[in-house]
Specification:
about 200 residues; alpha+beta; 4-stranded antiparallel sheet; two-stranded antiparallel ribbon; about 25% helix; globular
């Protein structure tokens, strides 16, 4: 540390400089050491702003989209509440608990057929199947195996049919899953959510 005359500092005694460790930078304003990211080339974010690579104004929540209606239906206590704001959609809600992924698929397909949400035929059943698989990838963290990995799921599901966006004249299906996944031991589970969307 360079020697500084105490008269230049107003009679104060020199304090030792903070010790720097890897990943720590000195703060320019006060000389205190602050924790920085592991990459020194990143700029520190001011404390009054969130760290985001996207401008907050660019991310807009669109009301009454197919995926949002499906997610709100599966997360709410009553499926009628999200539908009151979005009358263009038809929604079926149910639940399933199993250690086998094919039983989740079967339960959702059966509910959709029984309630008349999909028409009989390959095209709509195939679209529903792919929406289910996409939602299951979210629940299983990319893996569709549950029992083989000693995991069990308890899920609520919502199947929504309607336009992808308000004013759209096409038909889409969305499958939303919400529940728990974990070891087949009570108390060792955590929440999961998945969403799959496919066009008809």
């Amino acid at each position: 540390m360079p020697a500084v005359d105490t008269a230049e500092r107003g009679g104060r005694v020199d304090a030792p400089e903070p010790k720097l460790y890897p990943g720590v930078r000195p703060r320019q304003e006060s000389g205190e050491a602050v924790q920085a990211s592991s990459c020194f080339w990143r700029r520190a974010v001011p404390q009054n702003r969130r760290a985001s690579s996207v401008d907050d104004r660019a991310v807009e929540v669109r009301p009454n989209t197919l995926g949002r209606v499906a997610l709100l239906s599966v997360l709410s206590e009553s499926a009628e509440a999200p539908l009151a704001a979005a009358p263009l959609f038809r929604v079926v809600v149910g639940q399933v608990g199993t250690m086998d992924a094919h039983r989740v698929i079967a339960a959702i397909e059966t509910a959709a057929r029984r309630e008349g949400l999909i028409n009989p035929g390959y095209a709509e059943e195939h679209a529903l199947y792919h929406a289910i698989l996409e939602a299951l990838h979210g629940v299983g963290r990319g893996q569709l195996a549950f029992g083989n990995l000693l995991r069990t799921v308890a899920l609520r599901f919502a199947i929504a049919r309607g336009p992808r966006l308000p004013g759209d004249d096409t038909e889409w299906l969305a499958v939303a899953l919400y529940g728990t996944i974990g070891q087949p031991v009570k108390g060792n589970e955590h929440e999961v959510v998945g969403l799959g969307i496919s066009h008809l």
